[in-house]
Amino acid sequence: MNAREATAVTTRASEVTDDLPWIEDGSKIAPKDARVLSRLFLDRLRALEEGTSEYQYARNTLIEMNLSLVTFAARRFRNRGSGEMEDIIQVGTIGLIKAIDRFDLSREVEFTSFAIPCIVGEIKRFFRDTTWAVHVPRRLQELRIDLAKSKEALVVTLNRPPTVKELATHLDLTEEEVIDGLVAANGYIAGSIDTPVSDDESSDGGPKYADIMGDTDPALALFEDLHALGPMLQKLDERERTIIEMRFGQEMTQADIGRELNVSQMHISRLLTRTLTKLRTSLLGA
């Protein structure tokens, strides 16, 4: 840094910081020094008017000096869910900013003791709201966590997995509520259809869930149409039902039906057209 740059920095520091020390890069401050300086900056921040340059300097410097807390808190989540570490750091920084804005020096607690729970809480909310494969109500998301903790505690006590009834008793819930929570927990992580059916590691190349998934039965639509058509066929008179049965049930030609009923093919054609129009109108209007 040359003399001109040094003079500029000194001038800027005197203009911006007033009675606060000028810190060019708060992220380079050692954690031990950051704890001492944070208390000084937090105390001064409460006396400054929000929106002023000095207020912004104090707040931004506090954030920079305490980013190591975010990194520390984020490490425990690095292998959880699909969140990238960069996203977790950003969310944790939001928690740090909230801690700075809410911290009260009069409580006589270390800022780090207050900030870490705020940061961790913000990251947990991020995972709770964004990592579920299927959206479920928040109360069921929270119930999943309670169920997991209860299962761990009861396994130690009972030396076996707990039943629904035992979980309900332990959490003071109804069995229906526990079942809802267990079902909702299935929506936390979605399984890939390319996952092997067998858990055996030696079954590489074996069938996957995609290979055994059912497909739409092509006859299903026909069944639905016939099911809807049944009551309408019952409303036809005997001759109309007979012609329909012979034409579509026995697959007879119009000429064969005419000879069987001793009428002309033209007459059978007119009767079929009229009957099919009646059925089509009834089916579409159902």
Task: State the shape.
Answer: elongated
Supply Rg.
Answer: 37 Å
Task: Give me the count of strands.
Answer: 0
Query: What's the pLDDT, averaged over the residues?
Result: 81
Percent helix range:
55-70%
Spans of 5+ residues with little confidence (pLDDT < 50)? 1-15
| Strand coverage percent | under 5%
Our count of helices gives: 14
N-C termini distance: 86 Å
Instruction: Write down the secondary-structure element order.
Output: HHHHHHHHHHHHHH
Structural class computed from helices and strand pairing:
mainly alpha
Largest sheet: none
Record the SSE blueprint:
Layout: H1 3-16, H2 31-45, H3 53-65, H4 67-74, H5 85-102, H6 111-130, H7 138-158, H8 164-171, H9 175-185, H10 209-212, H11 220-234, H12 238-249, H13 254-261, H14 265-285
Helix pairs in contact: 2-3, 4-5, 4-6, 5-6, 7-8, 7-9, 8-9, 13-14
Structure described in brief:
The protein has 286 residues and is mostly helical. The protein is built from 14 helices and no strands.
Written account of the structure:
With 286 residues, this protein is mostly helical. Helix content is 66%, strand content 0%. Helix 7 crosses helix 9 and helix 8 packs across helix 9. The chain starts with a helix and ends with a helix. Residues 1-15 have low confidence and may be disordered.
